[in-house]
Amino acid sequence: MSLTSSKKVETNTYELEVAVSAEDFAAAVEKAYQKNKKQISIPGFRKGKAPKHMIERMYGEGFFYEDAVNALYPQAYNEAIAEAKITPVNQADVEILSVGKEGITFKATVVVKPEVEVSGYKGIEAEKKAAEVTDEDLSKELDRIRERNARLVDVDDRPAQNGDQAVIDFEGFLDGEAFEGGKGEKFPLNLGSNQFIPGFEEQVVGHQVGEEFEIKVIFPENYHAEELRNQETAFKIKLHEIKTKELPELDDEFAKDVSEFDTLEEYKVDLKAKMLERAEHTANDEFEGKLIDAVIANLKAEIPPVMYENSITEMVRDFEYRLQSQGLNLETYLQYTGMTMEGFRKTFAEQAEKQVKIHLALEKIVELENIEPTEEKLNERYEQLAKAYNMEVEQVKKLVPADGLKQDVAVQMAIDLIRDTAVVKQ
Is the N end or the C end of the chain the one with fewer CB atoms within 10 Å? Predict the structure, then answer.
């Protein structure tokens, strides 16, 4: 492989021309022939036994070229970007300029990381909130714990109300015809949670177990299914069960059930101490967030839009993974929330833009400060990962090589530098 030219054609966009020698191409064609010959039949030869020149004579000289090019491209491209000393942020737009016995030449147009300037990241002044836990905070936390430990009990002596869980069958109709995705059986609907489209849950409220009834709703104008947008639809409902939360009493027995303590007072003391520890972490995180905001405010860079789009895609994938861990999928989630994928992606836009800027700023600080993680720092990070995933340190080291961990540790060291040199406003 040889990089024949590298030029910047516009902001953050490079055009590389790459050549692969005739010798390397011939070797790749031979490999493609060896890989595919078993599936090829030529009159006069047993299947898989036809010589390469006979196959090329029958099907054309370039019969194996596509496979050969696909095999050679990744290494040739990676060597080219390494030689050009650029860092791509998207897949290259590739154009084959020539291919034949003399070798291959191709042009790759690629968007790269922007040039970055960052300053004023030392000695930043910011306010830091004092960590405290009041008796009211403790009371609210105990109420939340009671909610988490509540049990659902059946209700059959009153109508459904907000806060109940209604177990329903439903089927939606548009102009008298059932529509796709509008049917569910024994669905647990938490009334007042706004899980369904506006107006749906409110019309379930007030009905009794065993009732069959019809409600009408108008789908939102941004609903993902175009045929249902702004349409009035009817839903046939059957209410199977009503369940309500029954909270445990706040007493010594409650403390024994939810903790290792025998009395409520002991549990309260421990809980308040843990809440104070969390409050301190929160205060530190908020302080660090203010510092990072100040850093990216001083960031100068013409950031390619594709970097934001890539960040959004990662966030969508992470959200989808978390849904799957709960037995759901993204398509169903969008359906129930009435969102399109385009609209859903937009909800991550602001967060994605900030994350990209933070990453670029911290990487630049690592470069400016010549930050290089020590063996001790790497081992600390390995121990943190091992603890987080309940694994042995050596197992983590096999899964996450040191080279892959160094940049993450270096970025954290840059954050430490910003925090350690900051000035807390009084």
Answer: C
Instruction: Write down the domain spans for the chain.
Output: 2-111, 151-246, 257-425
Domains 2-111 and 151-246 share a fold: no
What H or E segment, with its residue span, contains residue 141? helix 135-148
Round to whole Å and give the CA distance between 383 and 83. 36
DSSP string, 175-190: TTEEEEEEEEEEEEEE
β-partners of residue 126 are 424
Q: Rounded to an integer, what distance in angstroms lies between the CA atom of residue 143 and that of residue 137?
A: 10
CATH number of 257-425: 1.10.3120.10
Q: How much of the chain, in percent, has pLDDT values that exceed 70?
A: 100
Dihedral-angle region of residue 423 (phi above 0 means left; psi in -120 to 50 means alpha; beta otherwise): beta
DSSP letter at 37 equals: G
DSSP class of 64: T
Residue 389 burial (10 A CB sphere; 0-12, 13-18, 19+): exposed
> Over the stretch 117-155, which tens digit does the pLDDT of each residue have?
999 999 999 999 999 999 999 999 999 999 899 998 999
Residues in the chain, total: 426
Amino acid at 324: Q
Rounded Cα distance, 88 and 336, in Å: 38
Q: Which tokens go with 113? A: 């990381």
Query: Could you tell me which residues come within 8 angstroms of residue 84 by beta carbon, excluding any fewer than 6 positions away?
Result: 3, 6, 14, 16
Chain position carrying tokens 């002596």: 157
Q: Cα dist. 206→117, 171, 216 in Å?
A: 61, 19, 15
Residue 29 corresponds to which tokens in the numbers above?
A: 């064609």
DSSP annotation of 377: H
Domain 151-246 top-level CATH class: alpha beta
Q: In this structure, are residues 301 and 116 in contact, taking their beta carbons and an 8 Å threshold? A: yes
Residue matched to tokens 């054309």:
60
Task: Give CA 232 to chain center in angstroms.
Answer: 35
User: Which of 148, 117, 120, 106 is closest to 20 using CA atoms?
Assistant: 106
- Is the pLDDT at 399 greater than 80? The verdict is yes
Domain 2-111 has CATH 3.30.750.24: no
Asked whether the beta carbons of 134 and 124 are under 8 A apart, the reply is: no
Determine the residue type at 283.
A
